[in-house]
Recover the amino acids of this structure.
């Protein structure tokens, strides 16, 4: 049982790190010396220069979804530790699992909106590609859902 708990905690912390990195790092779109993320557009060359991102409604919804996913995942980890010590024997971690699944759905919604609408913000060109932070956001989605489902299935033992 101890190895199972350790494994679920490692999975949860991995999801949390992926969510933090994908929300913060400026690598959602990459075009040569130009990078863009949810918060700023940066140009590297002789001088590294960053500007605030646009105030599009869809971009603000992506920002909100990514922040909500981080909040739900942190809250889920906190609730897991609380339930670990207060839950009765045989009880399930329903609340923890629901919050982790909500985190996964929020990151999926944010990344899906970004996928559909990013051409409104930066016109597509041959050199534009998705950055590693965007890929980490999509990677966090199935891992968050999997850990949420594991929490719901998991029963507390002595």
């Amino acid at each position: 049982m101890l190895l199972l708990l350790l494994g679920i905690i490692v999975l949860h912390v991995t999801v949390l790190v992926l969510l933090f990195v994908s929300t913060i790092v400026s690598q959602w779109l990459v075009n040569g010396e130009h990078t863009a993320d949810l918060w700023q557009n940066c140009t590297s060359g002789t001088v590294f220069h960053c500007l605030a991102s646009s105030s599009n409604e869809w971009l603000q919804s992506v920002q909100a979804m990514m922040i909500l996913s981080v909040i739900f995942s942190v809250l889920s980890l906190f609730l897991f530790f609380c339930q670990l010590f207060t839950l009765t024997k045989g009880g399930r971690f329903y609340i923890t699992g629901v919050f982790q699944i909500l985190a996964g759905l929020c990151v999926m919604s944010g990344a899906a909106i970004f996928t559909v609408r990013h051409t409104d913000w930066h016109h597509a060109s041959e050199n534009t590609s998705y950055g590693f932070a965007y890929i980490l956001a999509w990677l966090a989605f199935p891992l968050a859902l999997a850990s949420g489902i594991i929490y719901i299935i998991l029963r507390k033992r002595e």
In short: The CA atoms of residues 42 and 48 lie 7 Å apart.
